[in-house]
Amino acid sequence: MKLGRFGLGRLGALVFAAVVAFAAPATYSNAQEDNTIIFLAGPSSDPFWGAVQQGFDTATKELGVKTQWTAPQDFNDIVPIYTKMFEAAIARKPAAIVVGNFFPEPTEPLIKQAVAAGIPVLVYNSGRSTWKELGAIGFIGEDPWLIGQCRRQEGRRQWRQERPLHQPDRCEPGA
Fold first, then answer.
1. How far is CA 123 from CA 100, 120, 134, in A?
2. Residue 166: pLDDT over 50
3. What is the model's pTM?
4. CA 160/CA 75 separation, integer angstroms
């Protein structure tokens, strides 16, 4: 499965729509001080993040909700900057925070802190195995094991088409 610019933009829209679906009911019951949904992301100058931001922005406009895209300028000192962005987001007491658990050591305590403060947190892209125990309301991302299995099956099909039938189990290069 290839994700071109269009696919990444759709990913951003999907993440945002899920945030609204998950966080909206929780937001009303917790009566947060700020009705903004904050999305903590990577630098928009990066092609991946730029495309995700486009999808996020499109979904924001289409759904008519208040959001904030928060991202560092570049990847220099990303861990402390991402951590500070997350701390600032928690301090605002927003309607919800969307965060990737890319750096578990500093991020996981902050996810727990936000949840303890009554802020709905949605984890995306990284954190598939820990989001529930951290108290997040959901996870959006791919399953690397499943992707690997699909790629293996595709490779086996292609390999069988290219190899003579009398050598179906040989994997050596040039066999």
1. 5, 10, 10
2. no
3. 0.71
4. 42
